[in-house]
Amino acid sequence: MNIVARVSLTAAVGLLGVAVALGRVGERPEDSGALLQMSEAAAFFDSTIVLARPSLPSGPRGDELAISLGYLERLRAGVGSPFRLVNEAIEDPRLGSMNSRVAWALLARLRRGDAYVVDASALDGGGPWGPDGHGATGAAHVALIERVINSASDPRAGEQAIRLAYMIESAKGTIAGSTPRIAQEVAALVRDRGLATRDLARLLADGSDERSDVLSLLTERRALHGFAVEQPGLVPLTQALEVEAAGAVPSIVRALDTLDRVEPSAVSATASTPVIGTHFAARLRALGAWRPPTPQVFVTLGGGKRVLSGATNEETLAALNAIASQQAAPDSAKRVSAIAMLDAAVAVRTLAQDEPWFPGNAGPDASDLVSEFGLAGVKFSKGVPASWQPYYLGRLQASLRDMQSVFPALSFNGLRVRFGAEVLRDSALAMHDPRNRTLDLPIFTAGGTLAHELSHDLDWQTAQHIYADGTGYSTDRAMRDRTGSLATSLRALADARPTRPYSGVAPAERPTELFARGTDWFVATALAQQGRSNGYLSAIEDGVFAGYAAGAPGALGAAGTASLLSAIGTMTYLPDSLRSRFESQWSDPSVVDATLLVRRALEAPVSWRGVPVWSNRTDLFADTPALPVCAGDRSVGA
Fold this sequence. Notes:
This protein is mostly helical. It is built from 23 helices and 6 strands.
């Protein structure tokens, strides 16, 4: 008997029991048709997972099963919003007749807690340490983080409290310098689990009240950006939640001081192992390569130079992680893999509002973008598969539209765009070349850098207007000349930077890079205030997770925000509404993220005989600065 037949028989027996159980409690509001669909799908895959683990995939049905298990594994590891996964599963042409079954199974497993499961070994060895030299286990840390976030009135308040407490403990030296970064990432996934669970409860209740198809309601709600778990993290907490978070910090700090006494068994062991066996995972890796790469995965993992090398997108990442998790390896190697997986899962959160796309789906033509934006052309190198080109054209179109929604007067007339599969010189993620006004966008690394690169183009356009020869970038030239309002704004922006870059080096940057990074933050903030995010345009999540293109927030405080807004205002029109909201979010002490204020205090330089001495605490914030963003030639005379 083959695996599909065995699964069907086992599932049928299980479904009979489910139906009987549901019949006994049919009067409860939760016992809707949606709940029955979820229970049936969960029963099917619970049996499938056990039967398929040692088996070999065979034929088209084997491929469908490998892809199905891949969706469940991505949910388990927290790689992508559950509702984005459901939306993808519904539209995935590779699933055949399995689409709705996978979608319902994803919702069922989210409902019972088999989602956003963190490998606790990522926090092993991070302290605190007892008198005997033994430290707290990673499981104890995860248990504490889960307890704090699950007990908060809003998971976001619990996450904030964890961020603050771990930063304070690191400054005290109680825990390792790298521990806050990992704990912040764990807290991000636990927070998302809490928000997604609440979102699902509301979705099921609304489906029951409106007598609507839950899956249809889900796709409609996603299109309206109506799920809390998919809202951008840059949206500030309310004052009440900030107060709640701050009030929880002292007890968390006390708990951390004695964490070595916490029993590791307190952490949940739900879905602690991959749902997909090594044979099906290997097939999933091959099938996943059919989809375009995800820069949030590729760049975060160091361009294939770190562990889990070979992962190019979310499916191949889930496959490789499942294989690595089930192979014999030293504990230290498993911890490195766990941290890498955690890094990638957090980075993927910027794609929460993405629409599903698969090879074969439609998209705009290059001529459509030339017509809409006045581009000089969009080209692809030979290494970019033709089936992927509509995807990149669609992402570029959405990014240019979002950029113009923030800067209404911004023009792209005459800009050239080139998508390539090759690595750029100096290992740059993407590049704006001022000599021929071309955006060079490698498909493996450019996603999340568009706001940065388009800011360079705005800078280039400004040079055309204010300098006779119209060469280079206006920011570089203004700082060289040291005259004019733009130079004044840039000097003030450089002086106002509250912290050094994540590299641990005192602030000193090329003016065009300083401007582009600040503008990236402005664009991400402006979209977030509309409840929007665009992971292809910007990799910024919030003040802690800056991604790989923006660096630390540059415009923090009244001086920083005023300087950045003045520099942008010199180049293009800024609506008063966006200007005022940005100033409020980044300079009003009652609104500014408390973690940024604490970081500013902890990492401020201390003068020693007139020479600034920078703190050694370089890991307080989660960051993935794997590669430089761009490497365009310096401006003439700069």
